[in-house]
Sequence to fold (934 residues):
Amino acid sequence: MSKLASAQDFSKQGVADAIAVLKQQFGDRLSESEAVRSHHSHTTTRIPQQLPDAVIFASSTQDISDIVSACHKYGCPVIAFGIGSSLEGHVNAPFGGICIDTSEMNNVLNVNTEDLDAVVQPGVTREALNEYLRDTGLFFPIDPGANASLGGMAATRASGTNAVRYGTMKDNVLALEAVMADGRIIRTGSRAKKTAAGYDLTRLLVGSEGTLGIITELTLKLYGVPEMIAGGICSFPSIEAACNAVITTIQYGIPVSRIELLDEVQVRACNRYSGLELPESPLLLLEFHGTEAGVAEQAELFTSIAGDFTDAEFVWTTDAAERKKLWKARHDAYFATMNLMPGGSGVSTDVCVPISRLAECVNETHQDIQDAGLLSTIVGHVGDGNFHCMPLAMPDDKDMNARISKFVERLSERAIRMGGTCTGEHGIGQGKQQYLLEEMGESVEFMKMIKTTFDPKGIMNPGKIFF
Amino acid sequence: MSKLASAQDFSKQGVADAIAVLKQQFGDRLSESEAVRSHHSHTTTRIPQQLPDAVIFASSTQDISDIVSACHKYGCPVIAFGIGSSLEGHVNAPFGGICIDTSEMNNVLNVNTEDLDAVVQPGVTREALNEYLRDTGLFFPIDPGANASLGGMAATRASGTNAVRYGTMKDNVLALEAVMADGRIIRTGSRAKKTAAGYDLTRLLVGSEGTLGIITELTLKLYGVPEMIAGGICSFPSIEAACNAVITTIQYGIPVSRIELLDEVQVRACNRYSGLELPESPLLLLEFHGTEAGVAEQAELFTSIAGDFTDAEFVWTTDAAERKKLWKARHDAYFATMNLMPGGSGVSTDVCVPISRLAECVNETHQDIQDAGLLSTIVGHVGDGNFHCMPLAMPDDKDMNARISKFVERLSERAIRMGGTCTGEHGIGQGKQQYLLEEMGESVEFMKMIKTTFDPKGIMNPGKIFF
Fold:
């Protein structure tokens, strides 16, 4: 069993020494104020906050290399921070240490329109990149919901609604620059679209959650903005019927860009919150990208597929305003759910199963929610077999929060039992370490070997991914 | 600098001991005959053969675990073998040792038609898998040319003509089972389409060329057989014109399945070999997959794009026999090249650059071929910026072979200088170790750290990827 860093490996003196040295270099850009430290460990989740000892606002790769070198010298934990929208406690500082805020590293360094790629700093958010690209006819498709930083999205292997067509961050990062645990700066690849040159360090760093290195530059794939976008919705009598329509759609090779499932609890919540009048049964929302003829063909094919599984009509449009209206239930889903329990907070869960098991997994989960007396909606990126529940609790309702924790445990185990994963896109962080072990078994030992050889002092985001 | 295994680390006694022990277990399935050993180190290239001391025909994961455990115990090199179609000396045994032939592990274990995935043993070839899938309406798209084993294709991160649409092995392996250097068996993932659970060991093993573990099972993505396939060809007045047509096609987001470039030397060779009458200028060959309307739209869009760069007509068809005729030049390219020098042998090179630099890279390479007095064709998977030259020499022509080596050096350096890679799909093996260093710099140190922590005795395919 590889030994990883634990609290006793980090001395208060080491942390203090690192801060003292770095204060000389960074001056006002190093903050020890509680407000700043608290903001940088805000987990947006049920996981309690654990504050770093200091936050440094980095403005260059060399800054980050200097900070990590000092932390390496003095044995001080170091945690990278994008915008803090991760969901499994990734930015927490369980052993204290220094948080590196990358939000000022927000330059798009290069856009190569002919090669459909861009080189960006890690603090650029996905919306900022797309805003920057507006006049180029290109876009970056990965959309995890939050306006996350691209460095953070790579570090957590983010994806979201349109991964079914465009893949996840693993598929859309061509190369990285990163600062490793001793401060060395490496480049993991080139701008070539494919390579067979050595081990794939790019994809080793993507999803490593800041535990192996800090991403300081990303080379990303871009795509042409589709000539036409169509959106549509269709109700189904059951989760099975909806899932079977999804399976058939994927099997036919229809290149759907988004295919989202809302369960009937979510639809009811949306009706109430947004004043909609949708049938209160499972709903699929679709989006097609292509030429005018292409999206029409996709929509027609889906109409004919849906007809085998529901009597309801598939309503679709290429008009942007109409499309927005049709998709209103999806856009408002989060707030509609939160509105079910004013003052409460939601726990965003995340599992992914082979789509053949999706109906079974969602149905069992649905039953589990009822049996456990929880209030929760279900929303899924069903083309990938990925879905989220959002059980609600009042912050001081200890019993309910405990029941939710047990529910998350059962949900993770259910997904693993069905040949899936305990996390499709949120990552392990502090929240899912035990399920990683269940899911990956002996493989975790090999992950830990990489961790200990790259970061022998265990300073890089300690307490994440592994126990 | 991490220390890797070298000749003195492997004693003749250790190898002999491992063989003696394994002979007891495997009997006739262990061969020490020179013919068998020679067959298993046939490199299909200019790289001289280096024979293993024995070959074992494995029939199960447990067999491989037993072999590797014994090799680990006695310090004996171990080399995995699929069908031996790799091109950079991957199956050579520079320090002797045991070659594990996986060709008898050729079962398709499971096909999940609803999830579009299959679980296969490593000795299944890509053609055998597609033959097996014939009645399912599904297929596995990766096509490196040779009827390679899927284990070998994963180990070398293979791709080929239709990677422009379907990606490479990195994109199409969902999970692996592998035997690691001490004989432990791990699984790197599930059948879920995406995951954010821990480090991406799947993609670490894909492309690791047998130096970290031996792949014993693969979970692969499948795709629906397209309703319609169209093929077409178009001549261009120059490499630039052809490349600009490619760039525009990719930027428009036309989902071409194949887009291949033959330079005029290759076209001339094909005319001569196959009795064709193609204009002796650069040629693009395309393939479109989709619905009937979809491929027609793609072909029409390409027609209009090509019109901006050539006066020649884009000729295309959906008729299978006609399509084969149109593509004859591409199918015969290898033999047409070999026919330029009867009795000679060709060195298949492999680089990949951003497509914006492709014309420049191909043109410089073309000039280099002339200046160096070589006889070589150029064929490219140009949608990815990947191309191959095939310089020819008589086996005993030392001067020409030396000139070819120098040419490969310049070509690799040229690709790296243009922001590309020294290998798009053939891998590093024994042939490109020095260029890996040039291309990846300090990153190679981190690759070697993984190598030494996973395989401290250096028994896994020693002498490959790293010096």
